[in-house]
Amino acid sequence: MSITAVPRGTHLTRRLIQLYAGLALYGASSALLVVAGLGLEPWGVLHQGLAEHTGISIGAVSIIIGAIVLLLWIPLRQRPGLGTVSNVFAVGLAMDGTLALVPEVHGLVARAGVMVAGIVLNGVATGLYIAARFGPGPRDGLMTGLHRRTGRSIRFVRTAIEIAVVVTGFLLGGSLGAGTVLYALAIGPLAQFFLRFFTSTDNGGTTVPARTSGQAILPQ
Question: Do 129 and 26 touch, CB atoms closer than 8 A?
Answer without folding.
Answer: yes
